[in-house]
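Researcher: Here's the sequence for the chain we discussed earlier.
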Amino acid sequence: MLVSSDVIKRSEVSFGTSGVRGLVTRLSKDVCAAFTVNFINAMQASFDFDEVAIAIDNRPSSVKMAQACAASLSQLNIKVIYFGVVPTPALAYSAMCDRIPAIMVTGSHIPFDRNGLKFYRPDGEITKDDETSILNASVEFKSVFLQDELFISKVAEERYIERYTSLFDKNIFKGLRVGVYEHSSAGRDLYAKIFTQLGAQVIPLGRSDEFVPIDTEAVSLEDKQRALVWVKKYQLDMLFSTDGDGDRPLVADEKGDWFRGDILGLLCAKALGIDVLAVPVSCNSAIELSQAFKQVVRTKIGSPYVISAFASHCYTKIKEGINDKRAHELTTVYSIAGFEANGGFLLGSDMLFNGAKLNALVTRDALLPALIVFADVVAKKEVLSSSLKKLPERFTDSDRVQNTPSAKSQLLLEKAEQTPKALLKQLGVNSKGSIAISNIDGVKMTFDGLSVHLRPSGNAPELRCYVESSSSEHATVLLNTIMYNLKMVLSK
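Model: Thanks. This is the structure I predict for it:
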């Protein structure tokens, strides 16, 4: 017999920003099994269930990892419902409909030599407390033998399609051309069906048989160029894509310009009429400046922190000064949502949209913001690019230094906190006024109408840099200057 805590400890695999992440060589069948039995142990403390849903992304390693999770569930006499390759939010939504836990085998946007596991409670994404319970449990289990090929159910795909096609008139996008950049996205076969059912002419683009680690917060120069070429060549009204597991959107307008994820999230939240918003510290300050929301809560980076704000901060603030008889009423009167700088949108409460009920989906979703924003501009007989002109002029840009050891990142953050002016000078930036420091997550330096935010990634050995300015051009120039000097500083 194996002990789950020992297996996990020896693997050196742990939770990142969202879910378990690690090198494929570390995510052996027994490591996957150990995390699975600990997850079930944590869920059984609060929920009754005899089924668990599993889905995967298109990474080469995902199938065997799913088989390992399924084998460990069989040891626990738990039935497996396997959805094959579908987007993470499709899995989460279907599991929530059935009130059962779920496991998504995915490394999201990180390179293919890495992978991971995302866990879902029957009521949504797991919390940070759940992560602690999963890491600390010690459960005995047998070394697993991989099962034969798992039977694939289409229920999750069907429910996800219905969730969004039911919100709109079936001809809402009639006469419009939508490009779907498929690459290796888990939802590449599903998105065309949705846009087609809503009346659009869909042009599939860029399908890849190899895994493509697209990061929606650091769009490559190649993908920027692809968008410009595709939009012009195919006369697209919108270009849509996602990261590997379909929970982070990538949307380009009719000019071929990619939207920043937090700007797409802001436009979506406004169009939905969201009252209370929870967003990470890295998101654009146009959110507050827009004055579109009753309350904005800033969190650490990672969907578990956004979800925690739904429960602990947003609800608490709303209920202040309200008697108990109205407390239940307020959970329906106020709509709650959140999104991240990568664009993944989390709907924290049920709501009505176009007269139809839109159920809460407490995990990142790529499709909701794309559909809502596109439908909003179509209803106004406008084009996508026009939506940006109505927002406060605050522009962000971001990049990352890959293969940066955490120790080096930590030393840089300490310098940012202790001597921010000196560090900024090293990075090629002269600050004239005082510098405000925020260490909610990493170190964010705000000065002279600008901000520079440095933060180690929770998913891979990377140092991320976010900048904000009142000019798009200046934000890009500022980022390029900092990245050039940052690489030099880190190389010493």
